[in-house]
Amino acid sequence: MGSKWTTYKYGISSPVKISDLELELYAFRNKLTISEGGLGVEQHFRNAANLLWPSLQWNPWLEEQIDSLCKYDYVGWAGCGASGKTYSATLFSVVWWCAHPTVSTVLLTSTTAKMIRKRMWANVQELTRKVIGFPGNMVDSKMSHQAVKGDDRHSISAIAVADGNTSKAVANIQGIHAERVMVIIDEATDTPEAAFEACTNLSKGCREFKMLVIGNPSSKFDPHGRFCTPAKGWRSVDVSDLSWETERGICVRFDGLESPNMSYAKPKYKYLITREQVETAVRHETDSSPTFWKFTRGFWAPEGTVKTVLSESMIDTYEPGRTFTFIDRVTLVAALDPGFGGDRCILRFAKVGLATEQRMVIQFTETVHVAPNASLTEPIHYQIANRVKEECIHRGIPPELFALDSSGEGGGLADILTREWGPVVRVEFGGSPSENPVSDEDSRSCKDVYDRKVSELWFSFRKWVMEERIGGVDLPTLQEFCSRVFDDSKRKISVEPKKEMKLRTGKSPDLADAAVVLLDLVRKTTSLEPNAKKSDAAWELLVKQGDSIYHDTYAIDELSALQ
Predict the structure, then answer these.
(1) What is the DSSP letter of 9?
(2) 87: part of which helix (H) or strand (E)?
(3) What angle do CA 57, 62, 67 make, to 5 degrees?
């Protein structure tokens, strides 16, 4: 004889007894709608959460955050500080995992192990320990709560993605496979691109996938900003909008001026930004402060709030990431930012030539991160020099079409390359501005406009972007150009010193530095300023060399004679 089935509320039948919590988790997992006899995903979540944690205190922002995750699979949260984002994310993920733990994986990521242990993992510990008999096995040392002891695949796990070896974190993420996967990226503004992409790729092959990306808005071009980009573009939203559709889901924003605590002199809701905190921020900061927008308004700072070498609207307008169509005079060039002192050593390549509309342009192509091996007996300078020489020769680039920042230790590297390979082009970041005119429209010399050489270099790149003569620039590089501020309040324009930028952003603009070195090489070597022409023998040889890249007729004898 078969087992006797019992029908419970919501029309759920079972041959075994089902508790109220199991009923709610089942209805939540299967998304029972009202027409199907259920209460809807959001209400079933609330019922399950209240059964698990009877003292759970709800607030309007928590309800809105949970509802967005119930309705959408791809969710971005942008908000002020103390908006409860991290707690709400962890709460949802624990219930979501608990609904079917043996086939589910929740991956929590943040920038550093210290940060994730202090925030999301602390929430996981608190939530699971408050429930008697919560399923699974906690392994705190690994920041993993397993469905079954020893099973790290079906678990709630935390991974630091920007602390130490990012590639190892990426490998760990890529090894995750389960029927149900939920990914939460906290501190998304500072999450490395490789880790972000690895998390996104987890959607492939699973039956159910959810992704939540959390951050205090910083740049529309960082991973968080791009994930939250409105489906109709940034011009379709402004600071009055609290949510909008994105390409794959929704972005929900939490404005400190709209905090649930604003209606109360004394805070009603714990952990949310208070009326006093908001009023203090309004008194002591201004609308021109990026900190005010990031941590109080929870919105991307309006254009012009901070003066940066490139801006988001400039990138939208002039499209420096475009791909040009070359019609003549194509040649390959390369440039290096040596990155001594702990910075990245970046080697960049580009095509230079005549594009449509008879304009000479630069199309950036490959970027190579040169990573010296400290365990080798060969000196670091020689390791870098040999790698640069090898990469350039492989692409048919001679030394006269290669440039590097020769400031400081870069001068010694330039000496080695000149001795081992041939004369290279040196660019002194710390030198004085040149005598060159600022532009065709501005006949003033650069030395009269810029305070030092680095300011000239970065603003020359800005000029070429605005002339629509730069293409192929990747997003990480554009982020660096959008992050470096400048001061034009005095007689000469001055870009922010690199040390100050590193202290403020935590990063060195190595990708952008290599790009401006390459531009300076083009300006010095091929005289490609607007309307400039060059018809001498050296230029004709460069043209011939460029043609050989595509027709395999490189004039080795002529090049040797020129050297």
Answers:
(1) G
(2) helix 85-98
(3) 125
**Which run of H or of E encompasses 540?**
helix 537-551
CB atoms within 10 A of CB 433: 22
Cβ-Cβ contacts under 8 Å for 440 (sequence gap 6 or more)? 529, 530, 531
Distance CA 344, CA 371 (A): 8
Instruction: Take residue 124 and report the two structure tokens written for it.
Output: 């996981």
CB 147 within 8 A of CB 98: no
| CA-based max dimension of the chain | 99
The predicted structure's pLDDT at residue 556: 35
Residues 6+ apart with CB under 8 A from 418: 399, 424
Cα torsion 523, 527, 530, 533 to 10°: value is -170
CA dihedral over 393, 340, 504, 75, signed as positive or negative: positive
CB neighbour burial string for 376-393, b if at least 16 within 10 angstroms, e if fewer: eeeebbebbbbbbbebbe
- CA nearest neighbour of 333 among 526, 561, 538: 526
The SS3 call for residue 291 is helix
- pLDDT > 90: what percent of the chain? 76
Average pLDDT value over all residues in the chain = 90
User: Any residues with CB less than 8 A from the CB of 11 and at least 6 apart, and which?
Assistant: 36, 37
| The model's pTM | 0.79
**Radius of gyration of the chain from Cα atoms?**
28
The pair of structure tokens assigned to 562 is: 């020129």
Query: pLDDT of 387-403, one tens digit each?
Result: 999 999 999 999 999 99
Contact 269, 260 (CB under 8 A): yes
CA distance 396 to 548: 9
And the tokens for 470? 């730069």
Using CA atoms, how far apart are residues 57 and 77, in angstroms rounded to an integer? Answer: 20
pLDDT over 70 (residue 320)? yes
Q: What does each C-alpha distance from 259 to 68, 82, 88, 252, 287 come to in angstroms?
A: 18, 10, 15, 14, 18
**Residue 495: other Cβ atoms inside 10 A:** 24
Residue with structure tokens 């095509």? 351
Q: Residue type for 325, please?
A: T
Query: If you average pLDDT over residues 305-328, what whole number do you get?
Result: 91
Question: Distance between CA atoms of 427 and 338, rounded to whole angstroms?
Answer: 12
Residue with token string 């870098």? 384
For 336, list phi and psi in degrees, rounded to 5: -130, 135
pLDDT 10s digits, 200-243: 999 998 999 999 999 999 888 889 999 999 999 998 999 999 99
Query: Kindly report the CA angle at 309 between 214 and 316, in degrees rounded to 5?
Result: 65
For residue 369, the cross-strand partners are 346
Q: How many angstroms separate the Cα of 331 from the Cα of each of 68, 388, 460, 544, 549?
A: 51, 18, 21, 9, 8
3-state secondary structure of 363: strand
H-helix or E-strand spanning residue 332: strand 326-337
Beta bridge partners of 253: 78
- CA 402 – CA 414 distance, rounded (Å): 10
Q: How many helices (H) and strands (E) does the chain have?
A: 21, 19
Residues 6+ apart with CB under 8 A from 208: 179, 180, 181
Name the residue type at position 438: V
- Main-chain dihedrals φ then ψ at residue 309, nearest 5 degrees: -55, -45
